[in-house]
TrEMBL record:
Organism, scientific name: Ambrosia artemisiifolia
Name by which UniProt lists this protein: Maf-like protein DDB_G0281937
MF (Gene Ontology): nucleoside triphosphate diphosphatase activity
Species classification: Eukaryota, Viridiplantae, Streptophyta, Embryophyta, Tracheophyta
InterPro entries (alphabetical): ITPase-like_fam, Maf-like
Gene3D superfamilies xrefs: 3.90.950.10
PANTHER family xrefs: BIFUNCTIONAL DTTP/UTP PYROPHOSPHATASE/METHYLTRANSFERASE PROTEIN-RELATED (PTHR43213), MAF-LIKE PROTEIN (PTHR43213:SF14)
Keyword tags: Hydrolase
Segments crossing the lipid bilayer: none
Length: 206
């Protein structure tokens, strides 16, 4: 699939290295802006509603930041903003980034021999026309046993402390522990490619 070399400037509203990598793999040039929002202040019962609410809140914060920016070039290409969020759902409970090592350990240990799901939202905004649209993608992951040794190494490295549910299925230490994935790895990493592509196309034609 040929990526569009469109007359649009793409803004990725995320400081996530994984999301940046995925969008680059899709063939897009983009700039990065992060939203400074209090994610804990946004609560919903359903994980689907939560990831959508968080992505929209991030988008709103960045749009507000852009509107108050003095150096915004009025003659620049029209821009499309991509905001996203990911949570892990385990036995009906929503898991966001762990509060520390102990919670991360509990999270990873609980996946051993069991399964969890990720929900990732994508919310696009055409900053010229005001068009907005969002949706979410779900992936189910089944695990083999995860040893204490693997958990210790993951915690020592620290990357798991910065992701939802302390879950990184593409990590070399975790790959052998993954039994089955119903869905795509890019979605688990935080930016489902197919959904992002679909929403971007709609935003570009809006």
């Amino acid at each position: 699939m040929e990526p569009p070399t469109s007359p649009f400037k793409i803004i990725l509203g995320s400081s996530s290295v994984a999301r940046q990598k995925i969008l680059a793999e899709m063939g897009y040039d983009f700039t990065i802006m992060s939203a400074d929002i209090d994610e804990k202040a946004i609560r919903t019962e359903k994980p689907e509603d939560l990831v959508m609410a968080l992505a929209k809140a991030k988008a709103d914060a960045i749009v507000s930041k852009l509107q108050t920016s003095d150096d915004q070039d009025k003659d620049a290409k029209p821009s499309i903003l991509i905001a996203s969020d990911t949570v892990v759902v385990y036995e009906g409970a929503i898991r966001e980034k762990p509060s520390g090592e102990e919670e991360a350990r509990q999270f990873i240990k609980s996946y051993s021999g069991k399964h969890a799901a990720t929900l990732s939202s994508v919310f696009v905004t055409n900053l010229k026309t005001g068009f907005t649209k969002g949706d979410w993608d779900k992936v189910e992951i089944h695990f083999h046993e995860i040893s204490d040794d693997v958990i210790d190494k993951l915690l020592e490295e620290g990357l798991v402390l910065r992701v939802a549910g302390a879950l990184i299925i593409e990590h070399p230490l975790i790959v052998p522990c993954v039994k089955d994935v119903k869905g795509t790895t890019d979605s688990v990493m935080g930016l489902p490619k197919a959904l992002t592509e679909k929403l971007l196309k709609e935003a570009m034609n809006a």
